[in-house]
Amino acid sequence: MVIPILTGYVTITHPDGVDTGTEVQAHVQPETPGVPANGQVNDSPTYRVFVGGTVDVRFNDRIRWGGLLLQVLEQPARYPSPFGGPHHVEAVGTVMPETLVDILRGTTKDEYGDDVPNTTPVVTDVPVWLTEQSQTTSVPADMRTTVVRKLTGLVPPDTDVQERDRIRAEDGTTYLVEAVTRPHSSVERADLRLDLRLVQTGPETP
Q1: Which of 88, 112, 116, 174 is the most exposed place for a label (fewest CB within 10 A)?
Q2: Residues 139, 130: contact at Cβ < 8 Å?
C-alpha cells in the first residue's frame, strides 16, 4: 500500500512555549502502524514530517499542521545533501488528543458563609491538549528517589484563562493552573501554555 505524502505549512513550537518565529513548508506522511508517545494512548495516530535541512525542530517540540497538533516523539533525523550542506529533516510526531474543558475561577460562599471553590464555569467547551511527563529525581535527605509528574496543557491563544484558575474535564477531573505562558510569534499567535497540577480526579477515572 502506498501512503500519500501531503504538502502544506506547519508551525513549530518548542516545549518552553517559545515559537520558532517561522512558518515552514513541509511534507507530511501518515505513519503506520502508530508509535505511541510518552504519556499518550497507544493508538494515537503518528505522522512523519519532512522539513528543510536548516529548520530548527527538536525532540518534544509541538508541530501544528492544520487542525492537528503533533508532539515530536524522538530526536529528528537530519540528512545531508550529496552536494554538501543539509538537505532535509525528518521528525515523527504523534497526535496530541484534544479534550474539552470548562474553566473555573475564584470562590463563592457556601451555606455557612465560608469560601468554597466556584463550580460555575466562566468559559465552557475549551479545547485543550494535555501532555504528561514523568521525571525521576533523588531526595538526598531521605536517601530515596521520587517520580515528579509534570502536566502541561495547550489552549487556543484567545482563551480567557488566568493563573489560579481551574480547568475541569468532562469526567470531573480538575487541574489547577499554576502558570500561563503567552509566547510571542512573529508569524501567528501561538497557543497558550498552561502549567497544571492535578487537584481532583473524576469519578470515571480508573
Answers
A1: 112
A2: no
Indicate the DSSP class of residue 55. -
Query: Which cell numbers hold the place of 165?
Result: 484558575
Query: Using an 8 Å Cβ cutoff, are 72 and 51 in contact?
Result: no
Sign of the dihedral through C-alpha 130, 134, 139, 142: positive
Which three cell numbers mark 117? 471553590
d(CA 73, CA 80): 21
Sign, CA dihedral 114-115-121-126, equals: negative
Write phi, then psi, for 109 (nearest 5 degrees): -100, 140
Summarize pLDDT for 40-59 with one digit per residue, the tens.
Answer: 444 568 899 999 999 999 88
pLDDT in tens, 105-129: 998 888 888 888 899 999 999 999 8
The C-alpha angle 176, 99, 180, rounded to 5 degrees, equals 35
